[in-house]
Every structure is written in C-alpha cells, then in structure tokens.
Amino acid sequence: MGDTAATIYQWGGGREAFARWLNRFYDLVELEAPEIAAMFGGRVSEEHRAHVTEWWVEVMGGPAVYSERRGGYEHMLAHHHDLAITEEQRLVFVTLLSRAADDAGLPADPEFRAAIMGYAEWGTRLAVQ
After folding, report:
1. At what angle do helices 110-128 and 87-103 cross, to 10 degrees?
2. Does residue 25 contact residue 12 with C-beta atoms inside 8 Å?
3. Distant-in-sequence, close-in-space partners of 91: CB < 8 Å, separation ≥ 6
4. Distance CA 43, CA 29 (A)
5. How far apart, in whole angstroms, are the C-alpha atoms of residue 57 and residue 95?
6. Cα–Cα distance between 68 and 129 in angstroms, integer?
7. What number of H helices and E strands is found in the chain?
8. pLDDT band per the 50, 70, 90 thresholds, residue 107
9. How far apart are the C-alpha atoms of 121 and 32, rounded to whole Å?
10. Measuring CA to CA, which of 44, 74, 105, 127 is 20 to 30 A from 96?
C-alpha cells in the first residue's frame, strides 16, 4: 500500500476512481446481466450510481457522505431487503465488480483487490440472506 495511502479509499485513487469503477460496473450490468438490470427497471440511474459510489467511498475509508445524507447502514440495507437476490445473481454481481475494477484501472495489487472484493463478497452474501 505504501507510506502515503492510509485507507483503501486513498489507495484506490479517491472518489473519482471509485466512481469510474462503479459506473463501469453498472454499464456491464446493463449490457450483460439483464436479470440484475431488471431490478433497476433495465437501466441504472445516475442517482443510484452516485449513491452507491458514496457508500463504497465511505466504507473504504473516505468521507462519510452516505451516512450524513442517507442514513447509513440501516438505510442501505432496507433498500435490498425485498429484492429476493439469488445466489446466481450474487455471483454475476461480484464477477462484474471484479471485471469493472480491471476495466477502470483500479490498483491490481492483491491486497487492494482482496479488500474490495472481500467486502463485495460479504455484502452480497448478506443480500442473498
């Protein structure tokens, strides 16, 4: 990680890098995962993309904008409660997140990738439950 990056957020390149990653992810969802895109009416809004970016920025050590504006963890969890996400959808979701990280040029360092993908695995497994 180096001496200058104290958080995953900083290591990843800050808000701009996380936004690039998550926008690429949602582009892939729209292009390749119609069963997930359907949860968003077929297209993922700019508003949703911005909210998810705020979430990831916060949980990876950046500014707590999501909690300040949207209510934090419980608020985010409530949005996923009734989606009936399947294990197959979960797997597609995390696979596309990983591909999007490559496409967006996020650090390829194994520790960095383990951090973001570990969080994605944890969160998506909770969403299935």
Report:
1. 150
2. no
3. none
4. 9
5. 20
6. 27
7. 8, 0
8. very high
9. 20
10. 74
Q: Burial of 129 by CB count in 10 Å (0-12 exposed, 13-18 middle, 19+ buried)?
A: exposed
d(CA 19, CA 4): 21
Instruction: Give the whole-angstrom CA distance, residue 56 versus residue 62.
Output: 8
Q: Which of 19, 44, 77 lies closest to 9 in space, CA to CA?
A: 19
- Among 1-5, 84-88, 98-102, the least confident range: 1-5
Question: What are the contacts of 73-79 at 24+ separation with CB within 8 A?
Answer: 77/126
Q: Are 93 and 39 a contacting pair, CB within 8 Å? A: no
Chain-centroid distance of CA 112 in Å reads: 14
Radius of gyration of the chain (CA): 14
Q: What is the distance between the alpha carbons of residues 11 and 17, in angstroms, rounded to a whole number? A: 10
